[in-house]
């Protein structure tokens, strides 16, 4: 075989491969450049009174005394979340708990969502249609009956004033007993 002929064949094969690569690239979808649409930021106007430091007293009907919690509520830097950092000191029946609630508005489902976690492995997700008059009702989205608790009621929070709220919920034990849980919080 002549060296010139071999170079011509190699060049011809290279051109064919390059052209087929271009044809393949034209047939393959390219990277999309359209930006992903962002959800509108929540309108926190009905909840802004919650910003700041609150002192809360929580009372369960099955415990001997109430326990105290300090909460600090802020808006995060993105404007999508209201963040509630809570600290409860140790009591005789429970360890100290540090928790975070992150509240946002889900525009797809037209409801508020609260995602809760704590440093003892606790977690929860609840949702609410929002304030109706002076109350907001939160329904637990993850509750599953267990060996001790068979049902829960929604938590109803009442805005008494811009510096006071109360909350009430119940749960039913396997024995049939209904246990109430009440929280009173004051700002400042």
Can you put this structure into words, describing what you see?
This protein has 188 residues and is mainly beta. The chain has a single domain, classed as Beta Barrel (Lipocalin). 13% of the residues lie in helices and 47% in strands. It has one helix and twelve strands; from the N terminus they run αββββββββββββ. The chain has a ten-stranded antiparallel barrel. The longest helix has 25 residues. It is globular and about 65 Å long. 8% of the residues are buried. The mean pLDDT is 89.
**Order of helix and strand elements from N to C terminus:** HEEEEEEEEEEEE
- Please tell me what the overall shape is: globular
Question: At the third CATH level, what is the topology name?
Answer: Lipocalin
How much of the polypeptide forms β-strand, as a percent range? over 45%
Q: What gap, in angstroms, lies between the N and C termini?
A: 95 Å
Structural class by SSE content: mainly beta
Total count of helical runs of at least 4 residues: 1
What's the architecture, going by CATH?
A: Beta Barrel
CATH superfamily: Calycin beta-barrel core domain
How many domains make up the 3D coordinates? Answer: 1
Question: Count of DSSP E strands?
Answer: 12
Q: What's the CATH C level?
A: Mainly Beta
Backbone CA Rg: 29 Å
Side by side, the strands of the main sheet go 1-2-3-4-5-6-8-10-11-12
The mean pLDDT is 89
* Main pleated-sheet profile: 10 strands, antiparallel, barrel
């Amino acid at each position: 075989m002549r060296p010139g002929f071999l170079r011509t064949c190699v060049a011809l094969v290279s051109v064919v491969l390059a052209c087929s690569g271009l044809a393949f690239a034209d047939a393959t979808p390219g990277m999309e450049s359209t930006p992903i649409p962002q959800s509108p930021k929540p309108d926190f106007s009905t909840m802004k009174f919650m910003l700041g430091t609150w002192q809360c007293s929580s009372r369960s009907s099955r415990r001997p005394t109430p326990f105290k919690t300090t909460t600090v509520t802020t808006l995060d830097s993105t404007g999508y979340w209201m963040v509630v950092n809570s600290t409860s000191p140790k009591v005789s029946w429970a360890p100290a708990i540090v928790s975070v609630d992150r509240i946002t508005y889900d525009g797809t489902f037209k409801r508020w969502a609260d995602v809760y976690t704590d440093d003892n492995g606790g977690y929860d997700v609840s949702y609410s249609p929002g304030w109706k008059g002076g109350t907001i009702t939160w329904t637990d989205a993850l509750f599953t009956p267990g060996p001790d608790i068979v049902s829960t009621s929604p938590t109803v929070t009442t805005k008494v004033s811009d510096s006071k709220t109360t909350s009430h919920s119940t749960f039913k034990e396997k024995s049939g007993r209904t246990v109430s849980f009440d929280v009173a919080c004051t700002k400042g």
